[in-house]
Write a structure and sequence with these properties.
Length: about 260
C-alpha cells in the first residue's frame, strides 16, 4: 500500500463537501460474496440464458428455474457480514458530507453495516425484497420465502393481483430502474469528490458515473484490485483490496481531522 497515495486520498476526503461513493462487487468479495462476472460464477449449474427477464415473463418453466437459482444463491448473501470497506463508507457518511451511496451490489451489506438506507441507490436492486411485476407491491424476502416453504410453492404469485413475483434484483435483459439511475447521475454531477470502490468500471451505464462527476469538476478516487478503462481521469488510484485500503484511508483521515496534519 502506498502511504503517500493513502494520505492524498484522506486529504481529498477532508477537503470535499459533497461526497458520492460508488461501490461494485469488489467491496463484497472480502465478505465472501463472489463476483458474478468472475470466471466461476455461482451457483455453477445455471445457464444465464435461462435467467433473462424475457424468459422469466414468458413462461412458468423459466420462473421456476429463476426461483431455484435465486434460492441457491440467497443464503450466501443473507448470511454475509459487512467488512472494513463497508464500515469505512459508514464513517464517510458520519462526516455529514456524503450525499449518495450508489451501488451495483444486491447484497444489502451497506445497510447491514449501518449506512442510511435513504442515501443508498441500488442500481441492480436487492435480494432482500420481492416485488409483483404487475401491481409492483413489495414484500420482504423472508415473508415470501416463508410462504413458499409453508405452502410448498415453487413459483410465487401476487396475492392481490395474481401477477408473477420476482426477487427485486435486475435480471439479465432487464433495464435498470430509471428513477434510481437518474438520481445517481444527478448526484454524480453535483458532487465534488467521487470515490469508486471495488468496481472495474466495465458495466454500462454505471461506468459512466465517474466521467460524469469529472466533467462537473469533481475529484476522483479509485480503490480496486485492478485498473479500469477510466484510470486516465482518476486523481488517485489505489490498487488493492477494498477493506484494508479503505481502513487505511479512514485512519489517516481521522489523524488529519484530529489536527495531526502531516
Ligand atoms: Zn400484484
Amino acid at each position: 500500500m502506498d502511504d503517500r497515495l493513502i494520505r492524498q486520498a484522506a486529504r481529498m476526503l477532508q477537503e470535499a463537501r459533497r461526497i458520492v461513493v460508488f461501490t461494485g462487487a469488489g467491496i463484497s468479495t472480502e465478505s465472501g460474496i463472489p463476483d458474478f462476472r468472475s470466471p466461476r460464477p455461482f451457483p455453477p449449474r445455471y445457464n444465464s440464458d435461462d435467467l433473462t427477464y424475457q424468459k422469466f415473463i414468458s413462461h412458468e418453466r423459466y420462473r421456476k428455474i429463476y426461483w431455484d437459482y435465486d434460492r441457491a444463491r440467497y443464503p450466501a448473501m443473507r448470511d454475509a457480514l459487512p467488512n472494513d470497506a463497508h464500515r469505512a463508507v459508514v464513517e464517510i457518511e458520519r462526516t455529514g458530507r456524503m450525499t449518495a451511496l450508489i451501488t451495483q451490489n444486491i447484497d444489502g451489506l451497506h445497510q447491514k453495516a449501518g449506512s442510511n438506507p435513504a442515501l443508498v441507490y441500488e442500481l441492480h436492486g436487492t435480494v432482500h425484497e420481492v416485488g409483483c411485476l404487475h401491481c409492483h407491491t413489495r414484500w420482504s424476502r423472508e415473508a415470501i420465502t416463508d410462504r413458499m416453504e409453508r405452502e410448498g410453492i415453487e413459483v410465487p404469485y401476487c396475492e392481490h393481483c395474481g401477477g408473477p413475483l420476482k426477487v427485486a434484483t435486475i435480471a439479465f435483459g432487464q433495464s435498470l430502474p430509471t428513477d434510481v439511475l437518474e438520481e445517481s447521475f444527478r448526484h454524480a454531477q453535483a458532487c465534488d469528490l467521487f470515490i469508486t470502490i471495488g468496481s472495474s468500471l466495465v458495466v454500462q451505464p454505471a461506468n459512466l458515473l465517474p466521467p460524469q462527476a469529472k466533467r462537473s469538476g469533481a475529484r476522483l478516487i479509485l480503490v480496486n484490485l485492478s485498473g479500469t478503462p477510466y484510470d486516465n481521469i482518476m486523481d488517485v488510484i489505489l490498487l488493492g483490496p477494498a477493506g484494508p485500503t479503505m481502513k487505511a484511508i479512514m485512519e489517516d483521515f481521522g489523524r488529519i481531522s484530529a489536527g495531526g496534519g502531516d
